[in-house]
Write a structure and sequence with these properties.
It contains 7 helices and no strands. The protein is mainly alpha-helical. The protein has a domain of about 80 residues: 434 Repressor (Amino-terminal Domain), CATH 1.10.260. The model has no long low-confidence stretch (mean pLDDT about 80).
Length: about 120
């Protein structure tokens, strides 16, 4: 979300954000309406004060990688951690049969099922 959207969601956010980051409320208003650019040294404080709702990547879409290279590295690392779909050597599981995801050699134990009736 951008700064303008964040500020418009709740009354008093502009003043509390100004206090939290050590800026003047009129400056924040100008940043939010686009009449002034956000100084880059306020990027991280704004992101922290908004609990990540307004990110540096959103505030500085053209420059964030250059200004904060650690963010680019972190995002690349996070993308590497995403597990690939499906299983190695198998087709991706179907959406309608959960048993497609269970390997053939697995033993399935059902608990809580009634015992079979004995023959007398």
């Amino acid at each position: 979300m951008n700064l303008h959207e964040y500020l418009s969601q709740e009354r008093g956010r502009q003043a509390s954000l100004a206090k939290a980051i050590g800026a003047h409320a009129p400056d924040i208003s100008r940043w939010a309406d686009g009449s002034r650019t956000i100084p880059f040294h306020f990027g991280a404080p704004i992101e922290l004060a908004t609990c990540g709702q307004v990110t540096r990547k959103e505030m500085f879409p053209c420059d964030w990688e250059r200004l904060w290279p650690e963010l680019a590295t972190t995002l690349r690392r996070a993308a590497d951690l995403v597990a690939p779909q499906g299983h190695p050597g198998r087709q991706p599981p179907s959406t309608n049969n959960i048993m497609d995801t269970v390997p053939d050699h697995t033993v399935i134990v059902v608990t809580g099922a009634p015992a079979p009736a004995s023959e007398s």
